[in-house]
Amino acid sequence: MQKHLHTTSTFAIPLLGAFSAFLAVILFAFQARSADLKVVLTGNTADFKNPDELFSLMDQYLAGNPGQVLWVLNGDIFPDSYSNEQISNWKIKANSILDRAPQLQILLNQGDQDWQDSGRDGWKKVEALEKTLKQHKHNRFHVFIERGCPGPWTFSLPTLEIVIINSQWWNHPHEKPIPSSDVCSIADTDNFIEELEGTLDEVNDKNVMVLSHFPLESLGNYGGRFAASSYLFPPLVGNAMVAFRQNVGTRKDIINEQFDAFRYKLDGVLQDYSSLIFASGHEHNQSIVKKGENFYINSGAPASGHYAARSKKAALTSSKSGFIEITYQENGAVAYQHFVINDNKLEKAHSDILMQSACENGGLGVKNTLFQPCKNSISPSSKMDVASRNDTIVAGGGEYASKNFKETWLGKHYRDSWTKPVKVPFLDMDTTFQGLIINGKGGGRQTTSLKLVAGNGKEYVFRSVDKDPFRALSYELRGTIVSQVLKDQTSTQQPYGALAVAPLLDKIGILHASPELFVLPKDNKLGTFKEDYGNLFGMLEERPTDKIEKDKIFGGAKDIEKSFKLFGKLYHDHDNRVDRHEFARARMFDLWIGDWSKHEDNWKWAGYKDKDGELFRPIPRDRDHAFSRWDGIIPWLADREWGMPNGENFGERIAGLRSLMWQARHLDRFVGNELSKTEWVNAAKEIQNAVSEADIAAAVNQMPAEIYVKDGQEIERKLKIRIKDLQTYAAQYYEMLAREVDVVGSNKAEYFKVKRMPDGSVEVTVYDVSKENKQADLSRIYYHRTFYPNETREIRLFGLLGDDVFDIEGEAPKSILVRVISGGGDDSVTDHSDVKGGRPATLVYEKGENTAMDLGSEGRNVKPKDEHLYEYNRNAFKYNTYMPIGLITYNPFTGVALHGGVTFTRQRFSKPDFSSKHAFKASVSIKGNYEFSYANQFRQLIGKWDGISQIMISRPLNYNFFFGIGNDTRKNNDAPKNYYRTQYNSVSVSAGAQRQFWKQSKIELTANYEIDEGIKRNNSYLFDNPDIFGVKKLNLLYAKGILNLDFRDRASLAEKGFMVQLTQHVGHISKSEDKVFSISELELEQYASTRTKNPLTFGLRLGGGVTKGQLPFYKLFSIGQLNDLGGYKRNRFTGESKAFLNTELRYQLTETKNTFIPLKIGIRGFYDVGRVWAESDPSSARYWHQGYGGGFYVTPFREQFAFNVSAGTSKEESLLLMISIGSFFR
């Protein structure tokens, strides 16, 4: 009944207890098959002041429900103040109620409060809670804590499969299980999602419920929904706090940075399924929301209820205390009953059908497609209907046919191979491998596949030749033309390439499957898979697994492991290891055939037991991207070094080694970290020696004969050319890997011996630790490599857990930087080395109090700003990148202008996101204007403050328009067209620091210096008014500060939230009458929207500013057009102070995916008022300017790319066109 997918700890159960549990399972299964199953959902039971209230509630409920009941305690079970004794007493009462109610089972999940309310010692607390709960546990009391691992786990009932998720693992900001801690078999998001999808895919004819403490959608405060009074009180502060909770979030809000990304990803996964229930218990209310074909239920107010917003999507919302009961009916229907609690009395409230039985005709509601008891069970035939069939003619993918235009832009690729009919045999399931039987659907996000069991005792998989990347796309891209283009780009793959790869792997001694091409017959032996899989064109190959008889395991191995399981074994014990030479040979083979898709999931590992541990040999799989052809304009651009990070055209020469090997960059740096340059080159040499040109020709001829003339000959020719240069590529790839190297120990004790040599090289040897004296056991070497300063910049030693010893010695004039990350345990770090120069050559990251350190003159203990640097992250490495830009523009000032630039992003071990960014930009126009700028950002230069600086030279800098100073300046409509257009030459330099926080908020402090000079053109306003301050050359030296609190949902096209920004300048201007000047500016934004499919949004922006001292005209406040006042020319009014109010009403007309990329299209209207103040203003200037208008916007994919077109009207302009990208305001 109960199955744990992932757990690394077991608890002994006495024989009598096991027998009792077995009887309980049989009894429950028998009764559940003959009656409805009720699941009671409760969370936040910690809110009960007295635990007896919970058990009293259960007694009341059970008195009226003699049938089978599963009571779910979905997180936040106990108050943080509970002692172990109180928890033990609680458990005794739970056991008592289980004894009294044989129809009851209790399932317990964990929540944030069980993790010390996301406190620093949360992991320790939840482990202690699990230990207490599992002592003398009742056999019908099921605890899913599993040492704080993320899951997923399954709990199986006859008609219901429950999948349990520990959502707090993502939400927790402090120490928790990670892959290298060897606590969980899964402790990262990617492997979790893969396992969850596999679990959901394997469920057959059963209901599915997914349990998580945290919700994905919420109608309560934690989901950003608040009563109107919360916005109003306290005034202003209440509104800001609501915006913060909605868009930034506390640790309890589902939008918070820790949880939000996973929430989005998990929600996208669930949209691939239908008829399932996602049940949470975090929010203190009851709600049932329909999303897609699924239902999201929150039931978390058994003791006290909080606000619950109404929603058209909701079948139920309630802020009353109570809970929700789900009934899985025998006929397949699913119903709910809402219970409320009044004066400790349980009362039935609203009830309804959530999903109708698929067995019943009629009805407009959601049908339960997962569990259909009336469906005729189609048993597969024991023998095929037709024992043998003639071969058939079939094409891999006729939809990839194209004409010249499509081939020019999207590429010709292998379209001929895909569309060419080939002769293929039908799969004889009676005789092949002594008979084949379907064993369920296979995995894979792009391939249709079936798992089969053979009469020879082995397992096989049948994978379709054609691919569909639909499920691999983000949810927002599905159904767009982008998804169609990506489907079309399947034609970059050689559909029959895997047939040529297998015989070449035979030559170099790498374990692999050998695919064969078949058509799966539409035969009754397929059973229920006949309709969907009959006549499927694909490849049959052995499926490496150890879930079969030991003597049948692939490659004669003891174990077959997925990559994440292998990593766990390597972390667990240094006696487990990978055959690195065979791995290097496999990777050089990938390089040779251009297979750029060797990420971790495309490997399995065959384990062979020896006297100490296990030796693992690699089993590369999935050759979809071998020999990829990337031609056409768009694929060519994507294949640039600054384009897609992975992917490579299979040519005669390798142009992009990094992108070819990118998907395995973390795997290569972990498994291949001991490989020297000689070993990589020798791996390439072994392939050259083992494979002859005749072998290549024979291998390529394994592809269908019809394909050889079309594409096979070209593949053969390129393989023969590329193999000659393989040693050169091996050396180049080694150099890429050698720059930064991680030497990773295990969770056992290791002795890291580091010797700095006089020539600058560094020798690293890892030994076992002698148990007697904690010295190196020289007879047991686990790692040895010499690093050279012309190849390697730094070496990182990771001890992981265990009582490790780090011993560094040697003298050198220069040496490689060594970082010691000792990990947990009672470690010892000693550095007696001597390196000439001022900087320490050894940096130690150690937070343990029990670590002994003697760092000498070269070592320094580092206290990192990010505590995660104390941990080993296998996926931490990032490449340096660059991104070029180019653009041609036109405007009336400069005419046609050419713009170009490049941004470089640099990475470093101790910096989050990036180490530094450097942006160079330049432009030149046909009128002689030019501009150059350079800006940088250095992450966490001082504490958590980033260093920033910028230099810009503009000849000239466009100010657009200047109409004079004052609120009542007059525009002469008879003046020449360019009379008010204004420019000035400028050279500016700034340097300072900024700190980003709360997602989008920041503080910025800079020192600035400018040299500016206005340009007096003939027949211009400045020419006629040469005494305006700013026309002559000025030097400005000033400090600038910005405080921005941004609680909006996004910066562009915001729909909700609040933003306030305060800007302050203080400085000195040469030739000014005042010694000091200041500029102060404040602005606020507020957005509110309807919660509808096409929202109506009201936006409000207000602000103002004041100046002191004499300022050049281009530093005064100006309003007009997109700058604070629509309906007027840009910079129409200039003054020493300003105030403005901008309003907009925006309505989204539609959101469509039936376009190249997702589009949002809407209309907007605006009304603005504003004015400036100037000392020269007459009394008649005391009035406000008004502008209004409207327009439309188109948002392609992301809101920051929104294209806005509006027309504004005022007393001066009848129809002023305004165009902007991104936000309307400013």
From TrEMBL:
Location in the cell reads: Membrane
| Listed GO CC annotations | outer membrane; type V protein secretion system complex
Say if the entry is tagged with keyword rRNA-binding: no
Q: Give the UniProt record's GO annotations in the biological process aspect.
A: protein secretion by the type V secretion system
Q: In this protein, which residues make up the domain named Bacterial surface antigen (D15)? A: 957-1194
**Do you know which InterPro entries this protein is assigned to?**
Bac_surfAg_D15 (IPR000184), Metallo-depent_PP-like (IPR029052), TPS_OM_transporter (IPR051544)
Superkingdom, natural source: Bacteria
- Its name, as the record gives it, is Outer membrane protein assembly factor
Organism equals Dyadobacter pollutisoli
Task: Specify the taxonomic lineage.
Answer: Bacteria, Pseudomonadati, Bacteroidota, Cytophagia, Cytophagales
